[in-house]
């Protein structure tokens, strides 16, 4: 089977979750490789000037988002083009980034490393630095059977660590497991969610992880048309990846460019801010209107999706 093919840890997730889409046969989870990925995730060595790590924009205590920042921040005070997405439950996702331009998590980290306003570095320069480090020589040896760092090994270690980020311990999950019950407001909000939100934000992951135009007008300063920016196909105009509704308390501001600061602003958008364009999602052809009590109920239900155990899990934090 070879040194690297020996899997010694399993991905643990609830029985009501679907089967992961990630192919673990090609990159079997291994505790030593997860440990290497953890070290890499928190190391600013991956950036051009040794100041930005993956964790700079993906904070474990903010569900691996960059709460409070509407656009990502990078080397030399560079400002990225989009809001840093929260990263969890990645094994159930086929595409990555807001526009889905990355189709394999094993290479996803190349995008921020190479982005001039994010980490601003060339992966080959990163690999040269890793190969000069006595500590990393030991970590790569324990993971791969020899001490040589390569771009592929670096990417796979980062993806292994991130694949362990499973958020499945919220009140909603305890209700699903019959360990808790919704109160009256949460139960009413759950019904509102199922009637108005569930076709795009499908439980239990609370997203289809597909792409949709949710009627957000294009910011003229960013000129971001989502998938269309990469494909130039008309059907992809203003299509962005649908985020999960899990952990919203920790991942503000919202939308691909972080323009909406609160969940009330998000609900305002769906009631009176939708811009009708040819690719607008069919579910949003009519505004979604809630009265004040319904808003409270829905927000109470959404709060049951916040997973405090996930954000406090020391296995995901810097050693």
TrEMBL record:
Keyword annotations from UniProtKB, A to Z: Heme, Iron, Metal-binding, Oxidoreductase, Periplasm, Peroxidase, Signal
Heme recorded as keyword: yes
One Pfam family of this chain: CCP_MauG
SUPFAM superfamilies hit by this protein: Cytochrome c
Subcellular localization, as worded in the UniProt entry: Periplasm
Organism superkingdom: Bacteria
InterPro entries noted in UniProt: Cyt_c-like_dom, Cyt_c-like_dom_sf, Cytochrome_c_Peroxidase/MauG, Di-haem_cyt_c_peroxidsae, MauG/Cytc_peroxidase
GO MF term (any one): peroxidase activity
Domain Cytochrome c: 32-134, 184-306
Keyword Metal-binding: yes
Location, primary (coarse class): periplasm
Protein name stated in the entry: Cytochrome-c peroxidase
Organism of origin: Chryseobacterium oryzae
């Amino acid at each position: 089977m070879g040194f690297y093919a020996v899997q010694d840890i399993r991905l643990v997730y609830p029985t009501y979750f679907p089967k992961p889409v990630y192919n673990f046969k090609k990159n079997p989870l291994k505790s030593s490789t997860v440990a290497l990925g953890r070290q890499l995730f928190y190391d600013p060595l991956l950036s051009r000037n040794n100041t930005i790590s993956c964790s700079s924009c993906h904070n474990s205590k903010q569900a691996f988002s960059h709460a409070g920042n509407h656009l990502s921040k990078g080397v030399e005070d560079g400002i990225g083009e989009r809001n840093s997405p929260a990263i969890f439950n990645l094994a159930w996702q086929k595409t990555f980034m807001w526009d889905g331009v990355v189709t394999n998590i094993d290479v996803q980290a190349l995008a921020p490393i190479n982005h001039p306003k994010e980490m601003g570095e060339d992966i080959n320069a990163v690999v040269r630095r890793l190969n000069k480090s006595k500590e990393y020589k030991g970590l790569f040896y324990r993971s791969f059977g020899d001490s040589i760092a390569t771009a592929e090994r670096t990417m796979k270690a980062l993806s292994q660590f991130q694949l362990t980020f499973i958020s499945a311990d919220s009140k909603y999950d305890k209700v699903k497991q019959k360990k808790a019950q919704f109160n009256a407001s949460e139960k009413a909000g759950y019904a509102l969610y199922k009637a108005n939100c569930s076709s795009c934000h499908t439980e239990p992951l609370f997203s289809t992880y597909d792409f949709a135009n949710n009627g957000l007008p294009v910011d003229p300063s960013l000129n971001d048309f989502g998938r269309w920016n990469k494909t130039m196909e008309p059907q992809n105009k203003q299509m962005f990846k649908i985020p999960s509704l899990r952990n919203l308390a920790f991942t503000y501001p919202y939308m691909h460019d972080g323009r909406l600061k609160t969940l009330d602003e998000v609900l305002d958008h769906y009631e009176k801010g939708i811009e009708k364009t040819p690719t607008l999602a069919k579910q949003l052809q009519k505004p979604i209107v809630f009265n004040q009590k319904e808003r409270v109920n829905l927000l109470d239900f959404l709060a049951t999706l916040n997973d405090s155990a996930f954000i406090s899990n020391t296995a995901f934090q810097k050693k």
